[in-house]
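#struct-pred

JT: dropping the chains for the assembly here, can someone run the whole complex?
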Amino acid sequence: MTTNPRRNLVNRCNALKSTGPRSASGKRASSQNSRKHGLNKTPDFESSSEYRALVDLIAEEGFSAFACADIAASLLNYRRVMDAYYDTYTSPEPVDEFLRDANVKASNPIFSKLLSPSGSEPQDVREMAAFFASMQRQERRKGGPVSRRSADSHKLIRYQRNGIARLSRAVRQG
Amino acid sequence: MLYNVHFGIYVDVAMPVEDKSKSLLPFLSSPKLLPDESESEFQSGLQSLLSELDNPSSLAVALVSQLNECLWWIRRHTADKELLLHEAMARLLSKAGNHWDTYDNHKVSEALERYLDDRADKDEAVWIDEILAESKLTLSDLRVRAFKDAAKHIKMVDDLIHRQHQTMRHLQRSIDSIDYKSRLIKRMDLELAALESKQSVKGALTLDDKSS
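RK: done, full complex below.
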């Protein structure tokens, strides 16, 4: 976290210049940012029955009341991260096999028919083929199911790091 | 299988502590296994880890369970590295040869997977050999090229494995600290008992002195 006020001001000025995603696909992707795993939400463990049971059981091991609360919350938080990790690993974005394996060059007559049954401009067909090819490149770049699940799981590394560091600190300081 | 769809199975972690009502595990979500993974193997791993602890507390059992899950993740990710290579090999193979636009990526992928596991039937093996011959590649050439192609994703999986190692280190330190704390309390109890017994002996001696 930045504590230098000058640095803070510079960061804020730079942020004002930021325009966010520009392309349609970028906007679509960023609109789903917070919906993938829900780990950015602040959890409310204190009101759950599991939390209270954990606090009581940890207290029997001779930890202080503050340490018990900290350990119970960090244990639940760690499990939340690991559950999201499993879900992300087991449900990667599906491969669009049609798009990936399609032969774009051979599809020009189909694009031509799609654009206008009575005949279309060659320029329009070329643009559509180029758009299709760029979508295909994007799809191929993502790789197969194993590549996708690895890339998706990789995004959760920082949540795991924070979760385990919090748990370890709570136990050792307790 | 490269195109396997997984549905999770919850693992009921067998608790070795004598009093199950004092375990933390029922209040924490259980680690989930994939359908092709063995639950008994998972349990035996956990039991062997727990057997290394002398009379573990309920918190230590909960932490060891997390540690076992980390080991399981390392196993999964290590298998993924090989699968990533296979995936890249299938991709290269489906593009190779003179008729690359007619080869179905999915079909090549499945055939190659069986070929590499020595499970391919005669036709499939001949087909894969033909594509390799057409593209003037040997299996090891293909593997090298695939490694180059999949390097980015293999690096990601390496990062995931490294993260699990770091997590295990944190958990190990936490378990050590609980173990040390309980041993310290035991030692202090013993010292207190020794002091008390000394005090009582001294008291008895002074009473004897006074009476004499």
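JT: nice. Chain B touches chain A through 52 residues (CB under 8 Å). The first helix of chain B runs from residue 39 to 51.
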